[in-house]
């Protein structure tokens, strides 16, 4: 997809400032995602990738800047508003409700959907991960770490979001499962869902994404289409520039 | 950040002591009595602080131990005529014994259930004091004891109480700064990691309950002296609440905070005399305020250092060369063997007849699809999971099942899939938690800073810094652990595991969440560990890392060995490629 595609941006972040307490992590981040586009956000640990996702989904307050989503301003620090607007956030570290059955974990992910829709969506999500479907009545705590990560991704799918935020979905997943998650992403994109992906497996992330942003010290240092011929060299510079700085 | 020098840390205590010494010169006997009461309360709260603030056990009925100490001391003095000093010692012994009795439920009951048990005990003690009139005088009460000269005047008694309070402060601060204090906090915030580090909960808790019970009993004897006459009415529920809230207001895991909290709560009703009737309400309001405005209590308010920003573009750069100093040349351990282990959770077979050998100086990769039993295998080797059949054998020794805290002594250390650290402790303290098993000095040696304790502590600090240097985190030694990034926590867990000087190291997905350059550094570090004779069992999903650094690879599927062999053989194994690696 060319960068100059005519359709309006689904998500538009301008000058985003955010951090933890008085410690500022993001110093004015600009970023856009179009409908049906997979965008990956790369950068070394500590560059601020997770902070972008958390400020976006309202889990962190903003210190400045604006976020527009689907043509309307997204209020700061209001996770419910973000969910209602159609943003689903799969946070890092496979955090599921370990005391509840797998099926209930998924039902909760569709908390404010109507009963019939919710059940249908849960079945859809389970269809992507048969190993979860086979154990749907077991407590999520009985799953292995990687299977919990699978469940967290499945939870993100239940609401059929317009924008899916994924924070290191590959962590703890076996190589075949990582490929499966990426296949699901490709299918979501074909269905018009936008994805903002934070990932450490750079090759795999670039393989599925249309565009890439690189973050260093809380600023965007690179924006490019993933099919740009000089991308590897530019990415290396973006990473190296950070290390030497 | 450099560590705070000792005199700077001692300064607030010395200022308080100076104020206590100057107080008699004001000539105010009124404030003298209040200060005496505060000192007595603090003797109790100092001990209780180890239970509540450090071990995180909600013991709210400690007024019962105060009552037991008070009655033991008073009754012995009044009925047998022995002096108050031996009677006070007896009060301490009774307090210690009942301290263990009240504390034991903590080994089984959690949080509020334990709190209820201690409350129930407090009620029983008051009822017994009322009913056992032959000894306690029932509702009429018994006269309090009196210390011999020169401590029999109000200011003399004040001096005795201040000295005991200072002693209690010094001893608990020593314990807090020792491996015992770190172990208590580790059991509170990361119990699984604490057990894997060789910290056994039961003996440590019994010791701490003995100590805090003795402190409470002695405080009780002093309290009886101050009251001059004691009845069951003196030991109200409000008093129990005061002790407990002083610690919460002060902030958990601190000595200075609860000390200031005790002073504040003792003086507050006096400053605002009309508020005495409102004291319960006042405590409640104060507690709510603290919980809402500064959940870390006074201690957090005083912690300026950890509000300074850290540099953001930090890079973890391990220096494996330091391992030579940290892991001296030793006899290579015999092989660690897992023999025909079977383990099912409910109906699900997690491990179904697994055998593998881990040799010293070798990196052994354990891979397989999600849910194939890799972490469960680590849990069996680490003693966390009890297999239904099969065994874990080290040389000729069969290791006991279900005893994780004993594994560290057999030279087995591990890390976790999600890093388990004490967020409120410094990076250095977190690493030192791992070295507790190598220390020999006992609890009282720690409390009194005896030479062996000081030697061991200094050695532990030196080794912890070496370990931090080896994993590339030495610049962060003084930082609170919860300020670190995820990738740094992964390396920090390895440093903690290394402090036990393990022969075998079990790593559970150490590269998850790391960026490519960090994974490269991690690989070099693991190879360097193997070169020092450590046998590493590596559970990972980064196939590149596995094939680059492993000497041997075992592939699990559905709890069974699907394939085992050299990396090259595994990479070419048809079933492994289809079930796990993908095209």
Descriptive account of the structure:
The complex is a heterodimer of chains A (245) and B (583). Chain A is α/β, with parallel strands linked by helices and 245 residues long. Helices cover 38% and strands 27% of the residues of chain A. Chain A has 9 helices and 10 strands. Chain A has helices at residues 49-56, 79-85, 102-109, 115-128, 130-133, 145-158, 175-190, 202-208, 231-244; strands at residues 9-20, 23-34, 38-42, 62-69, 72-73, 87-90, 163-167, 194-198, 211-216, 219-225. In chain A, the strands form 2 sheets. Chain A has a 6-stranded mixed beta sheet with strand order 6-7-8-3-9-10, with helices on both faces. Residues 1-6 of chain A have low confidence and may be disordered. Chain B has 3 domains: 6-238, no CATH class; 333-411 and 502-583, P-loop containing nucleotide triphosphate hydrolases (Rossmann fold); 420-486, no CATH class. Chain B contains 24 helices and 12 strands. Chain A binds chain B through residues 21-23, 25, 44-48, 92-94, 131, 135, 138, 142-147, 149-150, 168, 170-179, 200, 202, 216-218, 239, 242-243, 245, and chain B through 307, 309-310, 312-315, 345-346, 348, 367-372, 374-376, 417-418, 485-488, 509, 512-518, 541, 543, 579-582.
In brief, what are we looking at here?
The complex is a heterodimer of chains A (245) and B (583). Chain A is an alpha/beta fold and 245 residues long.
Strand and helix map with partners:
The complex is a heterodimer of chains A (245) and B (583).
Chain A: E1 9-20, E2 23-34, E3 38-42, H1 49-56, E4 62-69, E5 72-73, H2 79-85, E6 87-90, H3 102-109, H4 115-128, H5 130-133, H6 145-158, E7 163-167, H7 175-190, E8 194-198, H8 202-208, E9 211-216, E10 219-225, H9 231-244
Parallel strand pairs in A: 3-8, 3-9, 6-7, 7-8
Antiparallel strand pairs in A: 1-2, 1-4, 4-5, 9-10
Chain B: H1 6-22, H2 29-54, H3 63-80, H4 84-103, H5 111-131, H6 133-136, E1 142-143, H7 154-176, H8 179-189, H9 191-196, H10 201-227, E2 229-230, H11 237-250, H12 256-271, H13 279-293, H14 297-301, H15 323-326, E3 336-345, E4 348-358, E5 363-367, H16 374-381, E6 389-394, E7 397-398, E8 412-414, H17 427-433, H18 443-447, H19 451-471, H20 486-498, E9 504-508, H21 516-531, E10 535-539, H22 543-549, E11 552-557, E12 560-565, H23 567-572, H24 574-581
Parallel strand pairs in B: 5-10, 5-11, 8-9, 9-10
Antiparallel strand pairs in B: 1-2, 3-4, 3-6, 6-7, 11-12
Helix pairs in contact in B: 2-7, 2-8, 2-10, 2-11, 2-12, 3-4, 3-5, 3-10, 4-10, 8-17, 11-12, 11-13, 17-19, 17-20, 19-20
């Amino acid at each position: 997809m060319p960068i100059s595609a005519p359709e309006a941006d689904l998500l538009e972040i301008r000058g985003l400032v955010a951090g933890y307490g008085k410690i500022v992590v993001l110093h004015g981040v600009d970023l856009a995602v179009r409908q049906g586009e997979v965008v990956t956000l790369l950068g070394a640990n500590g560059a601020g990738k997770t902070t972008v996702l958390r400020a976006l989904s309202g889990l962190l307050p903003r210190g400045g800047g604006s976020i527009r989503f689907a043509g309307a301003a997204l209020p700061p620090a209001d996770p419910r508003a973000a969910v209602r607007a159609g943003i689903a956030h799969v946070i890092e570290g496979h955090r599921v409700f370990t005391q509840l059955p797998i099926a209930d974990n998924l039902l909760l992910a569709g908390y404010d959907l109507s009963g019939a829709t919710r059940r249908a969506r849960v079945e859809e999500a389970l269809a992507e991960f048969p190993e979860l479907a086979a154990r749907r009545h077991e407590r999520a705590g009985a799953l292995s770490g990687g299977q919990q990560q699978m469940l967290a991704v499945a939870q993100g799918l239940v609401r059929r979001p317009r924008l899916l935020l994924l924070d290191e979905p590959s962590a703890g997943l076996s190589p075949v499962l990582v490929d499966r998650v990426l296949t699901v992403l490709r299918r979501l994109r074909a269905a018009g869902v936008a994805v903002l992906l934070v990932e450490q497996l750079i090759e795999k992330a670039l393989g599925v994404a249309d565009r890439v942003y690189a973050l260093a010290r809380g600023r965007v240092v690179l924006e490019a289409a993933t099919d740009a011929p000089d991308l590897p060299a530019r990415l290396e510079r973006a990473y190296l520039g950070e290390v030497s700085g | 950040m450099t560590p705070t020098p000792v005199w700077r840390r001692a300064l607030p205590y010395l200022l308080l002591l100076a104020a206590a010494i100057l107080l008699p010169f004001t000539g105010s006997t009124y404030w003298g009595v209040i200060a005496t009461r505060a000192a007595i309360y603090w003797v109790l709260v100092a001990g209780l602080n180890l239970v509540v603030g450090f071990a995180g056990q909600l013991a709210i009925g400690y007024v019962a131990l105060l009552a037991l100490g008070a009655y033991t001391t008073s009754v012995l003095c009044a009925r047998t005529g022995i002096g108050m000093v031996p009677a006070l010692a007896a009060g301490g012994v009774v307090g210690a014994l009942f301290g263990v009795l009240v504390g034991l439920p903590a080994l089984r009951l959690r949080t509020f259930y334990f709190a209820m048990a201690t409350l129930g005990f407090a009620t029983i003690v008051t009822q017994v004091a009322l009913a056992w009139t032959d000894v306690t005088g029932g509702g009429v009460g018994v006269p309090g004891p009196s210390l011999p000269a020169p401590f029999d005047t109000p200011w003399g008694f004040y001096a005795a109480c201040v000295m005991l309070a200072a002693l209690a402060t010094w001893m608990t601060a020593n314990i807090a700064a020792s491996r015992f204090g770190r172990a208590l906090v580790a059991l509170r915030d990361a119990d699984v990691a604490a057990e894997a580090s060789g910290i056994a909960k039961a003996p440590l808790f019994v010791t701490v309950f003995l100590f805090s019970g003795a402190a409470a009993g002695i405080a009780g004897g002093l309290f009886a002296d101050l009251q001059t006459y004691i009845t069951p009415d003196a030991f109200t529920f409000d008093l129990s609440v005061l002790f407990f809230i002083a610690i919460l207001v002060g902030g958990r895991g601190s000595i200075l905070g609860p000390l200031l909290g005790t002073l504040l709560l003792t003086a507050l009703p006096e400053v605002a005399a009309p508020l005495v009737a409102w004291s319960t309400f006042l405590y409640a309001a104060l507690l709510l305020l603290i919980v809402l405005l500064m959940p870390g209590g006074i201690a957090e308010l005083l912690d300026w250092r950890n509000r300074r920003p850290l540099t953001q573009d930090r890079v973890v750069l391990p220096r494996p060369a330091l391992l030579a100093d940290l892991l001296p040349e030793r006899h290579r351990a015999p092989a660690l063997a897992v023999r025909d282990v079977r383990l099912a959770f409910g109906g699900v077979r997690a491990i179904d007849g697994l055998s593998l050998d881990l040799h010293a100086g070798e990196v052994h990769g354990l891979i397989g699809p999600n849910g194939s039993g890799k972490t469960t295998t680590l849990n069996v080797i680490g003693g966390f999971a009890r297999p239904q059949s099969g065994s874990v054998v080290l040389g000729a020794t069969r290791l006991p099942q279900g005893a994780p805290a004993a594994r560290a002594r057999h030279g087995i250390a591990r890390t976790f899939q999600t890093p388990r650290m004490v967020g409120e402790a410094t990076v250095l303290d977190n690493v030192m938690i791992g070295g507790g098993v190598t220390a020999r000095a006992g609890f009282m040696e720690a409390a009194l800073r005896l030479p062996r304790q000081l030697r061991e502590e200094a050695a532990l600090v030196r080794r912890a810094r070496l370990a931090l240097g080896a994993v590339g985190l030495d610049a962060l030694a003084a930082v609170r652990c919860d300020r670190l990034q995820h990738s740094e926590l992964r390396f920090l867990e390895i440093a903690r595991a290394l402090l036990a000087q393990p022969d075998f190291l079990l790593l559970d997905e150490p590269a998850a969440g790391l960026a490519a350059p960090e994974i490269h550094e991690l690989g070099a570090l693991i190879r360097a560990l193997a070169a020092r004779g450590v046998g590493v069992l590596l559970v990972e999903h980064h196939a590149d890392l596995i094939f680059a650094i492993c000497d041997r690879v075992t592939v699990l599927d559905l709890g069974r060995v699907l394939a085992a062999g050299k990396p090259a053989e595994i990479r070419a194994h048809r079933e492994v490629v289809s079930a796990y690696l993908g095209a």
